[in-house]
Design goal:
Blueprint (H helix, E strand, L loop, with lengths): L1 E6 L11 H8 L4 E6 L12 E2 L9 E2 L1 H14 L7 E13 L2 H10 E7 L9 H8 L3 E6 L9 H12 L9 H8 L16 E2 L2 E2 L9 H19 L1 H6 L7 H9 L2 E3 L6 E8 L5 H11 L10 H11 L2 H9 L3 E8 L4 E8 L28 E9 L8 H16 L7 E7 L3 H9 L3 E10 L2 E11 L4
Parallel strand pairs: 1-2, 1-6, 5-6, 5-7, 14-15
Antiparallel strand pairs: 3-4, 8-9, 10-11, 11-12, 12-13, 13-14, 15-17, 16-17
Helix pairs in contact: 3-5, 10-12
The chain binds ligand JFH.
């Protein structure tokens, strides 16, 4: 692979003799040559610029000088293995340079000619002409900031492309890792000796020797960093590259896998507001039957829904101060999950007549504060097992913790159908413990519920 750079500052590229680029040239893997644009001028002042057509500040580089220079360089190296030539032109108006484009150039191009402008840039007809002449013209930018010329961008392109040329990087494993395991995500942080430096320690998991845990930790850090710094990258991520733990982690960061396409989208968990009433009535009515045991009659379920999940009831839940309702909302406004809690006054008990475990130890600790009832915790079917439950629970717990902060050990309890293994396991994973049983009525049919409880303040 050969790079020819044309610039009014060819000495700029002396640095390419250093380091990996220098070694690669010595090993004949790549060739880099810098040429002075002024060598193609004919006047005594070696002029390369002129005033802009149409007026305005600054100067523009002349098309005729550039044309002669590029023709010469392309012809001179027209025999670079007869391979493909690309005319790369750095410009603030180009496409932002990506790793994918660099990889493409590394595999497809044999000859890259880089035209480095100065002043206000190069007469636009240069790019137009070579495109028309059948040369692949690649106008690129390093990012949305303005440099004084194309030279820095040229060096960036050379370095990014050259390291992908086979045989270039000393350790092909690191290239492989780049292109596969961390595809589309920011890198995880890296550490080396000393183990402790200025009071800062290397994360313990990386010293444990457990490679599976180290890999998981790194993956989580990549996901965290990308969510915080480059949410745009998360949205573009192909979700088929994500495993279950990735999806859990992403849900804790506020992203879920969209059902419509295999892309990530952000979701929000927030207290419900009045405007949510119709959606809550609809969602709660639709998901309630899922939580019912099979022996309940359709009529009994329908009656229960009509009585408990109508808009009037929801209006009451949202306005009465003893309730807390948290909802999970998609980007498009759709509600996909909710919790509803009843917080008793003082250190009272919510759901005393519904089997509240008023006197049991939870986590081996005596309750000090209110016993909150979480009467609803529902996730719409298509969104289960994506980590939404954990995220919704954590937001609910934090809100409850805030509302009960005057007490040392408040407790939250719930009842769930005894036969519902999925729900029972889910609550256990969220830190609830089985503390007893209760009888629960849907209509006038009784059914057996198990009762779970946990401390509120503990994460
Ligand atoms: C370059 C230059 C100012 C005019 C509004 C924004 C820019 C050009 C050649 C690439 C990246 C460059 C880059 C690349 C090539 C050249 C200086 C200054 C303007 C109008 C144009 C000359 C700059 N990513 N940033 N800069 N210049 N303005």
């Amino acid at each position: 692979m050969r790079f020819d750079i044309i610039s009014v500052f060819p000495e700029f590229f002396d640095v390419a003799r250093l380091s990996l680029l220098g070694k690669a040239q010595e090993r004949n893997l790549i060739e880099i040559a810098a040429h002075n644009l002024r060598d193609w001028t004919e006047d005594v002042h070696r002029t390369v610029d002129d005033t802009p057509a149409g007026g305005g500040a600054g100067m523009v580089m002349r098309a005729d000088i550039w044309g002669k220079a590029i023709d010469d360089i392309l012809a001179r190296n027209g025999g670079v293995s007869g391979g493909k030539a690309v005319l790369a032109i750095p410009t603030p108006a180009g496409t932002p340079l990506t790793q994918a484009q660099c990889a493409q150039l590394a595999t497809d191009a044999q000859h890259i000619v880089i035209a480095c402008g100065r002043y206000e840039g190069i007469d636009a007809r240069v790019a137009e002409h070579y495109t028309q002449a059948g040369v692949e013209v690649f106008e690129y930018s390093l990012g949305d900031y303005v440099l004084n010329g194309g030279e820095v961008a040229a060096l960036a392109l050379i370095e990014a492309v050259a390291r992908l040329v086979p045989g270039m990087v000393g350790n092909p494993e690191s290239l492989l890792e780049e292109s596969h395991s961390q595809a589309g995500l920011l890198e995880y942080p890296v550490y080396t000796r000393p183990l402790s430096w200025r009071e800062l320690d290397i994360p313990e998991v990386l010293l444990s020797g457990n490679h599976r845990e180290s890999a998981r930790w790194r993956r989580d850090k990549s996901l965290e960093r990308t969510a915080a710094i480059r949410p745009d990258m998360l949205r573009r991520l192909d979700t088929s590259t994500l495993d279950k733990k990735d999806k859990r982690k992403l849900a804790s960061l506020g992203y879920l896998v969209s059902r419509e396409e295999n892309r990530l989208e952000p979701f929000a968990i927030r207290p419900a507001v009045e405007a949510d009433i119709p959606a809550l009535a609809e969602l709660s009515a639709r998901v309630f039957p899922d939580a019912c045991p099979a022996y309940l009659s359709e009529e009994a379920i329908a009656a229960h829904i009509a009585e408990n999940f109508n808009e009037e009831r929801w209006a009451h839940y949202l306005s009465a101060p003893e309730y807390l309702c948290m909802v999970c909302e998609r980007e498009n406004g759709q509600l996909i999950a909710y919790t509803l809690c009843e917080i008793p006054a003082g250190d009272g008990v919510a759901g005393l007549n519904e089997g509240a475990p008023a006197d049991v130890l939870v986590g081996g600790v005596e309750r000090q504060g209110p016993l909150v009832l979480m009467s609803k915790f529902y996730i719409d079917r298509p969104w289960r097992s994506g980590g939404i439950a954990e995220a919704l629970w954590e937001h609910t717990r934090l809100a409850l913790s805030e509302r009960t902060r005057d007490y040392l050990a408040p407790v939250v309890w719930l009842g769930t159908n005894e036969g519902n293994k999925r729900a029972r396991n889910a609550y256990k994973k969220l830190g609830f413990e089985l503390v007893g049983k209760r009888e629960f009525f849907v209509g006038d049919e009784s059914n057996a519920d198990v009762v779970f409880a946990r401390q509120i303040h503990m994460a």
